[in-house]
User: Fold Probable nicotinate-nucleotide adenylyltransferase from Paenibacillus enshidis.
Amino acid sequence: MRIGIMGGTFDPIHIGHMLAAEAAYDTYRLDRVWFMPSHIPPHKQGAGVAGEERLQMVKEAVQSHSAFEAIDHEIRRGGVSYTFQTIRELQALHSGAEFYFIIGADMVNFLPHWEHIEELAQRLIFIGVRRPGYELALDELPAFLHDRVMLADMPVVDISSTDIRERIAAGHSVRYMVPDRVYEYITRGSMYEI
Ligand SMILES: Nc1ncnc2c1ncn2[C@@H]1O[C@H](COP(=O)(O)OP(=O)(O)OP(=O)(O)O)[C@@H](O)[C@H]1O
Ligand SMILES: O=C(O)c1ccc[n+]([C@@H]2O[C@H](COP(=O)([O-])O)[C@@H](O)[C@H]2O)c1
Assistant:
């Protein structure tokens, strides 16, 4: 069983995340993709929106795809969401599975700074996708990562959660930048004050 994990802050989830997951799913014939919101992202100040709300948006986003699902592993564990710890735990729970971790180009370049990256890179393969504004410089990564990062081709999407939050704050539309069900959820709720 090949399981892709799309980890993120998802504040909110947007179509860049969906296309990255689909590109990895399609290119590497994954059986499932688990979308996993972090509790506290390791290198950010934290998410503005509570974990339960971000998880609910992820659940809305994956509803129409039979191989995509939301997992609440990091939200339930609490604390800072270090990926090495998560993968240790998920591998203990799913011993026959091969794990792939899907990341955008910004995160590929940042991989050398992840906690216990050497151990993590032995436990899974990273699937990187292009993202505007970030060069994918695989040969500049440390040698131990060279055969641990594979690429998947997706249509480049110049969208970030920051951009979406800023548009909402300025009173602009984000319809179609997020999956329809996420848009409806955002407009019904009060977390972004649409
Ligand atoms: N437009 C995009 N294209 C490709 N990958 C993306 C895109 N947006 C986010 N990702 C990737 O998805 C993962 C989760 O991203 P995250 O939830 O932090 O979204 P973000 O848009 O980068 O958020 P923020 O703007 O708040 O920093 C990361 O690996 C990131 O590189
Ligand atoms: O474990 C780490 O050191 C680490 C450092 C940076 C990012 N990550 C993970 O990478 C995923 C994307 O991160 P982010 O901050 O862009 O949402 C998310 O699952 C994070 O927990 C993990």
In short: The chain has one domain: 2-161. The CA atoms of residues 42 and 80 lie 6 Å apart.
